Amino acid sequence: MPRSVINWEDIPESLLSERSVKVCLKCGFDLMTKQLGLARRTAYTEMRKFAPASADFRRQLERPLFTGSPRKVRCPYCDAAKRWIATIRLLGIDEHREARKNIRPLLTALKTKPEEYITLKENRSAVDVFSDWLERTSLGLDFEGEMWLRDAAIAYLQRREPMTDWSDAENINHIFLSRRLDEGWERVGNRLYVSPGLYGDVLVVQYLIGRTHLHGALTFEGRLTPFEFFHRLRRLGYLEKRGIAANDPGSLLEAAIEVLAAVGEIKPRYVIDRTDYLKQLKTLYDGMKK
Questions:
Q1: 47 & 77 share domain
Q2: 15 with 95: CB under 8 angstroms?
């Protein structure tokens, strides 16, 4: 029976993320053969079982794992050359309610290749998942100018409505508040008009990102202090629209984050991709046998 084809193209890019670590196979073989005294074939068999924990992709790494530039890859522990280095990827899938029909066939196909792909579930809160998304989004923004405000807004809209065709989103030049709209948004040429509730969501995302990377939180409404931001959202009717009962900036942000995190009922899934690792490991072992 032929193995299923792994097709990632049906998953919206806004729901995918990737982290990677490098593995020094020379360090691995040295540990197995020199320190543990295993035969080379036994060492190879044991190394084929190796897979980092998902937490290894987020914390400080220890031998034989490391991170580094793709151009200059040498082991920081033993100075092994590039041919000894393999890559293991952690692919994140934010399983949005609207995209589950697209994600299910992919997960089924991954199960047919259990050696190459290890699927994981983590019990993480919606707020933690949203915080991870904010961090990833921030890393892709250019804070030198103010176009990042547009890019952050579009990134949020893509996350909120992943099955919408956003292929030409880069042509959207302006995003405006529209009080004519009760919900959602509409596009007219290169302009996007959004409802007050959605506009408030965008402001919250910009504020959260901006206060981390800039001296003061910049939004479409300008650079606002916490109290200015609180009163601006209240005047927009955002608190009422989102059912938020808050009397100060701190409680507003806490409640708004919970509202945004709940959108789409997103469940995180993780896939450890060992394809490159297993291929490189076999190439090196076959070379040792000659």
A1: yes
A2: yes
Q: Report CA-CA distances (Å) from 284 to 21, 46, 51, 269, 273.
A: 19, 15, 18, 32, 19
Report the distance separating Cα 274 and Cα 216, nearest Å: 42
Q: For 242-290, what is each residue's pLDDT tens digit?
A: 999 988 999 999 999 999 999 999 999 999 999 999 999 999 998 887 6
157 and 91 inside one domain = no
The answer, yes or no, to whether residue 34 has pLDDT greater than 60, is yes
Same domain, 158 and 247: yes
CA distance 37 to 268: 40
Q: What are phi and psi of 4, to 5 degrees?
A: -65, 145
2 occurs within a structural domain:
no
Question: What is the reported pLDDT for 1?
Answer: 32
Number of folded domains in the chain?
2
Which residues, 6 or more positions from 92, have their beta carbon under 8 angstroms from its beta carbon? 16, 17, 18, 19, 132, 268, 269, 270, 271
What is the rounded CA–CA span in Å between residue 196 and residue 207?
Answer: 16
Q: Domain residues for 217?
A: 127-264
111-124 pLDDT tens trace: 999 999 999 888 88
**Confidence band of 215 (pLDDT split at 50, 70, 90):** low
Residues 135 and 221 in one domain: yes
If asked whether residues 95 and 135 sit together in one domain, one would say no
Pairwise CA distance, residues 279 & 148, whole Å: 39
Asked if the model's pLDDT at residue 32 lies above 80, the reply is yes
Q: What is the four-CA torsion angle of 236, 237, 243, 244, rounded to 10 degrees?
A: 50
